[in-house]
Amino acid sequence: MQFSISQVAATILAVATTTSAATWYIRGDQIEVLKEQVSSYKIARDMNLESLSKNAALAIDGLNSKLESLDERNSLIEKVSEQEKSISDLKSKNELYLAKLNKLETQIGTLFSSHNEFSLKDEEHVKLFEAEYSLAINRVQSDDVIIILNNETMFLKPGKYIEIANKGIPCKLFLESMRKWSSANFSVLCEKT
Question: What is the pTM of this model?
Answer without folding.
Answer: 0.44
